[in-house]
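not sure who needs this but someone in the group chat was asking about Cell division protein FtsB from Actinoplanes lobatus so here u go. i didnt clean anything up, its just raw.
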Amino acid sequence: MAERRTPSGQGPARRAGGRPTPPRTRNTGPIRVPAARRTSSGSGGAAAKRTEAPRPRALTGRATVLIALVVALALAYTYPVRVYLKQEAEIAEMERAQAVQRAEIAETAKTLEKWNDPEYLRIQARERIFYVRPGETPLLVVDDKDRAARTAAEQTPAAAPDRWYDTLWSSVQAANAEPQD
């Protein structure tokens, strides 16, 4: 029998004992040997059986255990990872709130520094409570056009002024009507 070579050109693989390993074959069913090849000592019509090699299973026991272990570890780590991510989000939110508070503190410190300046105090006193220095004349301008329009609409129109001689005559009559003491 001629030895088959592998596609790489090397001879057949050998075991440690020096014997070649038997080729693996798949069981495809019984093989019928033609009548010309049958030996005379055989029973005549019996079919020769091929040898069966163990067929590898799709999933071995070790692989099943390994997959179960990986799934169990993944499930065991999901809760702590979720808690960790939630805490990281809370920390980030607190840092943002802290930055906002620091900005407000800085703004308040600037305002306090302004109020420590005496000139700023004088300006605020003039604007807010209409403070005037001795010798100054206060002048307050009220610019309220809406209120002036409402007040004008609510007031009754004034009567036309009397002529000067009517006013004179009415004063003469009023003086004549006064009782003499």
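also The mean pLDDT is 80. if thats useful
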